[in-house]
Amino acid sequence: DAPMSAGKLRSLGEVALSERRYEEAARYYQQAIEIEPDVAANHYKLFKVRNRQRKLGDALRDLTKALELDDANVEYRKQDYAVLQQQVAKSGGSVQADWEEAQREAQQCSQEVDAAQRAYADGNWRAAVQYFTKALGHMEQASDLLFMKSQAEYNAGDYYGTISDTGKILKAHSNHIEAYQLRGEAYFRLGEHDTAVTHFREGLKLDPEHKGCKAGHKAIKALQKKEKRAKDALEAGNHEEAIGHWDAAIQLDPTHTAFIKPTLLNIIKSYSALGKHKEAIDTAEKYLKMGESLDGLFALGDAHTAAENFQEAVNTFRKAMDFEPNDRQQECQQRLKKAEIALKQSKEKNYYKILGVSRTARTKEIKMAYRDLALRWHPDKVDQEEKEEAEKKFQDISEAYEVLSDKEMREKYDRGEPVFENQGGGHSHNPHGHQQFFRHFQHGGGGGHGGQRMHFRFN
Fold this sequence. Notes:
elongated, disordered C terminus, mainly alpha, 0% strand, 72% helix
């Protein structure tokens, strides 16, 4: 006769067990184990026979083997406790105290597992994590319970805990696809998108059609695509377009705080660059509603500074100085000092305001602003009734350009230091600014430096 398959042997074993022919059932399952030694069900079925025979030592060994091959089966784990308790009850002699302690531990472990599973079913994630942690302290290995703990940690927002525990699972079971998915999702929630993609891809290697890993991979790729478009638009100087792409990326998952918060900081800067100061301030306040932080306070202070709300900027940076914990005290002090200087200068002669440029303007922007204003207010190019006003404006424009186009003088001005000897009273430093204007553009650049010649005709 042809040898029987493992499946046939298991069927015969079930029949023998139901008829209480335990020795015969045990032989069938042992033969099945010889054919399929790595199938957990074979060992578990043999355990059931040994347990009926009250051969508890053999039963525990069979069950332990089943757990080694498939420790995700909660039913195996519960039987493990039951057999251990029976062994404890049966034992005696000089080791009775040790067995009693073991019995108490087994009972406590069983109670903690039950409590963890109830909390898990009720969605009480933090309580579930606590009970799973206690129960796992009694066991050497229980990947099924550890995975449930990882899921509870994820739902409780403890993404680092999820990453740590799923890492332990994958170290013991490298083909655990659900652990790859959960770990990828945890990395995603922390904003570590590239690492998340790596985990989803590992899962897809095991099962190319796995829905969870496919969905996670697709979601991140969609977000990264919009993020790249925003970056490209920003590099091209198109702030409006960049903001549009960032907003679209945020809408993909409005709960993804780790991505949204740094993205809002970028949006705030772009709004300020566009001169949309109200939008910048509103966005900074939205950021702070998600949780007060130094980054958020700095962003709000900078937005107020760009809007020339200097008193509000000073107030915000003072609040940052008092924020705890604060490992950026020096940066806070620098920002506060700049805001206080800007507030003081706003009540005097403000060179940035005269030229109509921001305090972060580049030299090229300053030069262009000076050129346009100088052309507009040159005393020789206005009507007679505007001449007095033009003289005053032109002197202020020339003085502002003289300071802001010179690196050393601009740094002094930004620090709130006098830039001219005997400076005071807000008087113009250079009464012959219109002559300087001609010299500047006829000789290519400020400060006497060489360069391309530029000629303007006034007629």
